[in-house]
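I am writing to request your help with a piece of structural work I have in hand. I am sending you one protein, given as its amino acid sequence and as whole-number tokens for its backbone shapes. Kindly check, if you would, that the fold set down in the tokens agrees with what the sequence suggests. You will find the record immediately after this paragraph:
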Amino acid sequence: MVQQVTSGIKISVETVFEGTFYKNYKVHYAFGYKVTIENQSKDAVQLNSRHWRILDALNNMEIIEGEGVIGKKPVIKPGELHTYRSGCLLASPFGAMQGHYNMVNFTTSNEFKVYIPTFKLSAPFALN
């Protein structure tokens, strides 16, 4: 598990290798990840959008941007958590992800970024 705190918002990420499969005559490696967002600040915040950079061992990079996470724009009160699960496909058995969430503080109306720590994606069978 990797963790990082930005502006009182703690991000924790756990990963799992889901398996391999073929799509369009190419092998793909499926990874799942669980993100926990913990509000350790004194103000309620809302996650409005996300920005991900996904990199595999073949130097392929994919940028993902969009509103919310898994169709939601959660409001997280002080001391509360929001957890969700998602996943990605890689063309290699190794890779990494990093990014940030764009959030708004309900007390000040200020928008701010919360950084998601870089986390590794690795298929156990490919490890030596």
Notes: The chain is about 0% helix and 70% strand. The chain has one domain: 2-121. The longest strand covers residues 9-23.
